[in-house]
Write a structure and sequence with these properties.
- Belongs to the membrane fusion protein (MFP) (TC 8.A.1) family.
- It is a single-pass membrane protein.
- Its main location: membrane.
- It comes from Curtobacterium citri.
- The protein is built from 5 helices and 16 strands.
- The protein has 246 residues and is an alpha+beta fold.
- The protein has a 7-stranded antiparallel β-sheet.
- Strand 13 and strand 14 form a beta hairpin.
Length: 246
């Protein structure tokens, strides 16, 4: 056998080994990742409610408006409140973080947190019942993803808090997050329907509108704990790929 043929043989063996190693790593990585059956962006919600029934006399905000803590939201005129003030049951000119009370029975509701007005349930001139909600605010910098995965009992045991989750947004941009909490419901066939809340600093800092508004569907890929023999090698290759920007 000539040296040229030997070099060709050696080169062919190297190429085959590289291909087999790459395929093995890809297979191992896919074995330790699971795609969500459903996932959507959510946010911390703060409801605005009233203990007194009355008529809405003023709307200071609309759905989609950004508000700061303490900003006026709605004003309600309550005859029952006016009576309680006259009886001394409620003090006039009471001020809290949630509302201000006037002597004439006017309640001015305020935002307890900064964020975005997600919903306004009443309109000027409408009547609200005592104990009902007037609207909802999505707190700023509180976006997260709630996702559902269907996994086997074995794979459920490989889910850990702090595990990496890749979130693909509707514009094909991918952001990284981590598992914050896990809950499970086991089906009759023994598979675990797992709900995972995912925190992502990059997502949380995004505006709660457009493609990052609460309710927007996303694709989530959860990375399970890798218990295989190639776990260390896979981690090394993955870390190297991130360092070079792949």
């Amino acid at each position: 056998m000539t040296w040229t043929n030997r070099l060709r043989l050696f080169g062919g063996l190297v190429v085959v080994l590289v291909i087999v190693a790459a395929c093995t790593l890809v297979f191992n990585q896919r074995q330790s990742a699971v795609a969500s059956t459903s996932a959507a962006i959510a946010a911390q919600e703060y409801a605005v409610g009233t203990d007194y029934g009355g008529t809405v006399t003023e709307e200071y905000v609309e759905e989609g408006d950004s508000v700061t803590k303490g900003a006026k939201l709605l004003q309600v005129q309550s005859l029952q409140l006016a009576q309680d003030i006259r009886k001394g049951v409620v003090g006039a000119d009471t001020q809290t973080s949630a509302y201000d009370i006037g002597e004439d029975g006017l309640i001015t509701f305020k935002a307890e947190v900064s964020g975005t007005v997600a919903k306004v349930d009443v309109k000027t001139g409408g009547y609200v019942q005592a104990g009902s909600e007037l609207g909802t605010i999505h707190k700023e910098d509180s976006l997260f993803v709630t996702s559902t995965f269907t996994v086997t009992a074995r794979d459920y045991g490989r889910i850990r808090n702090g595990a990496q989750v890749d979130l693909r947004l509707p514009d094909d941009r991918t952001v990284r997050g981590t598992v914050q909490s896990v809950s499970v419901e086991t089906s009759d066939d023994g598979r675990a329907k797992t709900t995972v809340d995912v925190q992502s600093p990059e997502l949380s800092a995004s505006p709660s509108s457009g493609i990052t508004s609460p309710g927007t569907p996303v694709d989530a890929t959860l990375h399970l704990r890798d218990d295989g023999a190639l776990a260390g090698v896979s981690d090394m290759v993955r870390d190297f790929s991130r360092q070079i920007g792949l």
